[in-house]
Structure to design on (136 residues):
């Protein structure tokens, strides 16, 4: 588990633009039970989360079509919520950071760490906006 003071600015990077933090398995299930589209970002302390994942997710929301709700869980901190989010992301193996788009609770698009690491935020945003244009 990472200290709260370490992850606070990393959490705020997403919450300041409207992402809702989920801290429990019940909160994850409740978010995915809502109709519409949900983007879940599994946040992380790693460098690719700071340089690519969070900026890409934020940039993707500038699209005309975007998810009904945006939520986040933090790997290495919110274990229960992360484990539940990852259950919903099966058959994809656990990775962080990662991003998943759900439509009416069903996984429709996934960005694993290997799709994020080493790629610029703009490319990640483009990948997500293409998914939004198809499913949102």
């Amino acid at each position: 588990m990472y200290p709260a003071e370490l992850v606070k600015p990393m959490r705020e990077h997403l919450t300041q633009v409207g992402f809702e933090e989920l801290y429990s398995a019940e909160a994850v299930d409740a978010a995915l039970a809502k109709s519409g589209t949900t983007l879940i970002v599994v946040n992380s302390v790693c460098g690719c989360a700071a340089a690519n994942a969070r900026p890409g997710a934020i940039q993707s929301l500038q699209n005309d079509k975007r998810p009904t709700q945006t939520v986040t869980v933090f790997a290495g901190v919110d274990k229960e919520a992360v484990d539940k989010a990852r259950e919903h992301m099966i058959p994809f193996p656990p990775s962080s950071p990662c991003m998943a788009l759900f439509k009416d609770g069903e996984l429709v698009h996934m960005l694993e760490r290997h799709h994020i690491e080493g790629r610029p935020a703009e490319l990640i945003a483009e990948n997500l906006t293409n998914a939004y244009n198809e499913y949102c």
Notes: The chain has a mean pLDDT of 95. The chain has one domain: 4-135. DSSP finds six helices and five strands in the chain. Helices lie at 4-15, 25-33, 47-60, 79-88, 113-116, 121-135.
